[in-house]
Amino acid sequence: MSRIELNEISHSYLREPKGDTDYALKRIQSVWDDGGAYALLGPSGCGKTTLLNIISGLITPSTGRVLYGDLDVTALPPEKRNIAQVFQFPVLYDTMSVFDNLAFPLRNRHIDKNDISKRVQEVAEILDLTAFLKYKAAGLAADAKQKISLGRGLVRSDVAAILFDEPLTVIDPNLKWHLRRELKEIHEKLKLTLIYVTHDQMEALTFADKVMVMYEGEIVQIGTPQDLVENPEHTFVGYFIGSPGMNFMQCTLNGNVAQVDGAGIILDQKTADLGHKSQGKLELGIRPMHVELSSEQVKNSLPAKIKSVEDLGSYKIVTLNFADKILRAKLAEGASVPSDKAWLVFSPQWIRLYSDGRLVK
Amino acid sequence: MDKWENNRAWFLTIPVLVLVAFSAIIPLMTVVNYSVQDIFGPGQSLFVGTEMYTKILRDPRLHDALWRQFLFSGLVLLIEMPLGVLIALAMPKKGWGVSFSLVALALPLLIPWNTIGSIWIIFVRPDIGLLGAFINNVLGIPFDHTRTAGEAWITLMLMEVWHWTSLVALLAYAGLRAIPEVYYQAAKIDGASAWATFRYIQLPKMRGVLTIALLLRFMDSFLIYAEPFVLTGGGPGNATTFLSIYLVKLATGQFDLGTAGAFSLIYFVIVILLCFVFYQVLQGVGKGAKQ
Amino acid sequence: MDIILDSVSKTVNGQIHINNISLKIESGATNVILGHTLAGKTSLLRLMAGLDRPTSGRILVDGRDVTGLPVRKRSVAVVYQQFVNYPSMTIYNNIASSLKMSGMKKSEIDRKVRKTAAMLHIEDLLNRLPAELSGGQQQRTAIARSLVKDAELLLLDEPLVNLDYKLREELQVELQDIFKQRKAIVVYTTTEPTEALILGGNIVVIHEGSVLQSGSTPEVYRNPATINVAQVFSDPPINLLNGTIQANTIRLANDIEIPLNSHHNILKSLPAGNYMFGLRPNHIHLSRVGEKDAEIRVKIELAEINGTETFIHVNHGDFHLVVQEYGIHPLQIGSDISIYVDPSLLFVYDEKGSLFLSPFKNGLD
Amino acid sequence: MKGKSKTIGLFIYIFLIFLPIYWMINMSLRTNADILGTLTLYPVDPTFANYIKIFTDSSWYSGYINSMIYVTMNVLISLTVALPAAYAFSRYRFMGDKQVFFWLLTNRMAPGAVFLLPFFQLYSTIGLLDTHIAVALAHCLFNVPLAVWILEGFMSGIPREIDETAFIDGYSLPRFFVTIFIPLIRSGVGVTAFFCFMFSWVELLFARTLTITNAKPIQSVMTRTISATGMDWGLLAAAGVLTIVPGALVIWFVRNHMAKGFALGRV
């Protein structure tokens, strides 16, 4: 087991990259503690798979170094980095039984026969594949097949990390949460470093202790699910995490009041001071679930017009015209919604201020 | 998304049906017509029912030709299949080498079959052939491909392997190229040796293509005519007289239409049975390859 | 405008794909067909479009019988699940192809194509080829092509399922507005309940080739006629517990007793006996909400966080529950907690699985 | 097999492929006397006499022209009839579709010898003996099935949803087929044309039997010289080299689809 460190990594698929746009990965500088569950979350084309392939050794980065513990593995191929990988679709040796599939990595390392079968039984138990050991691997359902791929990594005692590249893509939607639960349980039991690439926030936030949100080749935030929701450090994170994403309104600051086209929103003192210190274009961000609605005027509430109300079963989405901007509020299923005029309350503890897309800190 | 159900699609196939029927069904009727008569001159024939069939079936020369044909096709598969796979594995995966080797390997497949015979006659003759001269003069072994059955067969097999192994290699290579890169990555990560990668990934994934290659090679070798005819004329004696050569001798040689007709029909029925096996396997393989 | 399916069935080499469906679908609101994979959604859509002929039954559009009519003669537009465009044509020609076929003037075609392309934010990709575009942009092209011809019937077969989750969210909102401005009959199939709710309008719940229930989307969500409908129309899966009502108490899964007092007169009025109880995950809370809430001790199996809610999978003995709670709750697997349930929020089904009582029937909403 | 030894092995095999062909080219550049005289690895004083003879002597070059004519005719006929049929097999399920598709396969595999006499009878009765169209039609026996199978393989690679989208947009079947579908499978049409060309060009039996003089192909011109006494090896070699030229010219363009062509579109 070892710590994984990426320093000054950048990568381009072109031989002579010129501008920023030629870089699949701009500048990555991060440390991954041993035994942690990490998620690389971002839209298609943000560079998350490139980063995973650099960690697995499939790609050698244009610049920078990859360290396992203090061993520089930058140029080492995957097989020499004792990592395992689960791919988007199940990769199996279809002519073999489940047992042989799981035993394959150990047989290649010429490990003694009954150690192998003991180890395989153990791992099969963890993945509850024991009942299928004698079956041909090709005949099983997609989720069982993905567990076999995972098992080939787990049987090896020397494996430093297991990498997942959107492993749930081919799984039936109604079965996904079963596999998510099993992956989580495995991580709880084995405390292995797991790195999980996905574009789906549910998978990332459920699976990982630390989530790295990537955007256009950069890691824009590393944090616990709580950090990402409550303190998004970049407007992209605010937009990408949570559905619907954060509301953003351009504003100017005087004193501790943020002016949005004539409406004044009171900020807490700390945020206001930080806002004054920054120079860039200021934006005020608040999550739909933190926008409170009442039918009559209340202390420092602001007027808005209801544009539409959508009943989404377990919650309601209210679209509002506030100071000629479109704003969204998320209310519980039973909450009452005024018909035309409404008064909005923005509680300062949930308001975040951004300058040129970055949280003022 | 499976196919649309529509019987009016028949109209699209009519041109093919008419053309192939004209080239297949009408001639086959004449063959059947011949096979049930004893024709001893233009315009004079006698209906003899199945006598021709029993005659040809008991003909020892047919049994020899049939045995020789299966031996030949068997040897062809035994040598060409493994050699073809070996060549496919040796071919480069990317770079200019790919196009060069594809073109080089495909060359023998484009040469007219009679020219193949001519090439090898020139190549093997002791007086003017490079190989012939090399064996006789340099190795000191007296070698003439027309003298004994053994020498004729060796030359024939050399020519056959030289001519058709590329087909197996091309198909095997196509099978290899279809294997997604992730399988090789997974094998490397699992520490698989080159042999294990071949045995557990490449071979199973090539099962479909190799079955097609096997059946194609068997069918084509089973019908072979031009190359042996040009190289050895079926000789020495009947040593290399395969089914097609014997049939042509029957049909054109002694003007014995009855037996030739019966023999043609039996030969074609064997081919249809082999085709049926080929078609069933193909359906299975087709689905396998499509997954 | 409306489309009527009159006892339509479809069997393909022996297998029943559509089992005698009679249905009326009108324009003016988005019509969603919801069902699990292989429930028959795509087969139904293809029958409506005229791409397949029904084995039996008739299909009428505005009263006209179009059952046998080839798709070319129908006024129909279809958007497939995998982004289907003409690979050899530019995006402009892809969108314009149906207009060109109808012999429209060039200037008119140009105007319509540019307007529709702008509506889907692909106006600056018009002279690119489909292969150069991302998945999302390719599907936007396919949608633009289906909208530009103003067909009577607009059919979309799980159009967003292959897209990134955030892209799907954006398009769901955009499509909602686009469908509002269409006079056409809009039919949209999906496996995701949330997508059905977002698009709103009317819903038809399909299961194994037959219609379980149809009606206005919120109405069906709040009154799922059978257990099957409740299961199909619920993500995360609705909690189902068998139990009995006797002497003013509900006994669930043999060791949970919920006393019924004055507030639950409707529940108390039900005849004693065995029932199947349905409980929406968001109707279970981690803290006591009303004093009449019942408390249940459970062990945590997994906490799934999706950015605004947390789905907590718990078990009590051998039955499993899912709790949907606002906000972020990274709870430790295996720890024991209490969950609180308001009995008046229970769906009550009889033993045959048909709805007996819905919490929203008695005006809670 | 490590990288190095793999490439060496491959080079040796390719060398062995070229060796006999080189030897024929070597022979073709020498006079018959020179060939029978001394045996040299390369043509000591190369002469183009054989080639000149072929290009001037009408009995030789007419052989090539005849071959070219009936092969081209066959390719055109095969493609025109096979395209609609392949589309039917690839897109539709209809009564007896599997049986006809199988029947076509049996004709592709039919032994030429079986049809030798019947064709001779057929074409002489309808008075087409010794004409290019006779050989072209005879070759349809195996080339049309080959074309249908290969085209069906390529067509099944195009999703049916594209056809449906076109029909929905108002395209009629013929217009869709010509303006959208054929451009999508143009590589398939090219490969099919190449394989029909090749299998018709290499065929000996029918070409020799159904022609006497004015449609006589190069193959039979060559085989006749073998049985004559006093064999002119140089001339035969030169003729042989010229029969390889058509295939060798085109192969570069279809090199990536060779396997699919040979495997009847099943790969």
What does this structure look like?
The complex is a heterotetramer of chains A (361), B (291), C (365) and D (267). With 361 residues, chain A is α+β, with helices and mostly antiparallel strands. Chain A folds into 2 domains: 4-240, 3-Layer(aba) Sandwich (Rossmann fold), CATH 3.40.50.300; 247-359, Nucleic acid-binding proteins (OB fold (Dihydrolipoamide Acetyltransferase, E2P), Beta Barrel), CATH 2.40.50. Chain A contains 9 helices and 22 strands. Chain A has helices at residues 48-56, 98-108, 113-126, 142-154, 176-190, 201-207, 225-230, 235-240, 269-277, and strands at residues 4-11, 25-32, 37-41, 63-68, 71-72, 83-86, 161-165, 193-198, 210-215, 218-223, 247-250, 252-254, 257-260, 263-266, 282-286, 291-294, 302-311, 315-322, 325-332, 341-346, 352-355, 358-359. A 6-stranded mixed sheet of chain A has the order 6-7-8-3-9-10, sandwiched between helices. A 5-stranded antiparallel sheet of chain A has the order 16-20-17-18-19, with no helix packed on it. In chain A, strands 2-1-4-5 form a 4-stranded antiparallel sheet, covered by helices on one side. In chain A, a hairpin with a 3-residue loop joins strand 17 (302-311) and strand 18. In chain A, helix 2 (98-108) packs across helix 3 (113-126). The radius of gyration of chain A is 25 Å and the shape is elongated. Chain B is mainly alpha-helical and 291 residues long. Chain B has one domain: MetI-like fold, CATH 1.10.3720. Helix content of chain B is 76%, strand content 4%. In chain B, strands 2-3 form a two-stranded antiparallel sheet. Chain B is globular, with a radius of gyration of 23 Å. By secondary structure, chain C is α+β, with helices and mostly antiparallel strands. Chain C has 2 domains: 2-227, P-loop containing nucleotide triphosphate hydrolases (Rossmann fold, 3-Layer(aba) Sandwich); 239-357, Nucleic acid-binding proteins (OB fold (Dihydrolipoamide Acetyltransferase, E2P), Beta Barrel). Chain C has helices at residues 41-49, 91-101, 106-119, 135-148, 165-180, 193-199, 217-222, 227-232, 265-269, and strands at residues 2-12, 15-26, 31-34, 56-61, 64-65, 76-79, 153-157, 185-190, 202-207, 210-216, 239-246, 249-252, 256-259, 273-279, 284-285, 294-305, 309-316, 319-326, 336-341, 347-349, 355-357. In chain C, the strands form 4 sheets. Chain C has a 6-stranded mixed sheet, with helices on both faces. A 6-stranded antiparallel sheet of chain C has the order 13-12-11-14-20-21, with no helix packed on it. In chain C, strand 9 and strand 10 form a beta hairpin. In chain C, helix 2 (91-101) crosses helix 3, helix 2 (91-101) runs parallel beside helix 4 (135-148) and helix 3 crosses helix 4 (135-148). Chain C is elongated. Chain D is an all-alpha fold. Chain D has 2 domains: 1-47, no CATH class; 56-262, MetI-like fold. Chain D has helices at 3-28, 32-37, 49-56, 58-91, 97-108, 112-125, 132-155, 160-169, 173-184, 186-202, 205-209, 218-227, 233-254, 258-262, and one strand spanning 92-93. The longest helix of chain D has 34 residues, at 58-91. At the B-D interface, strand 1, helix 1, helix 3, helix 4 and helix 5 of B face helix 1, helix 4, strand 1, helix 5 and helix 6 of D.
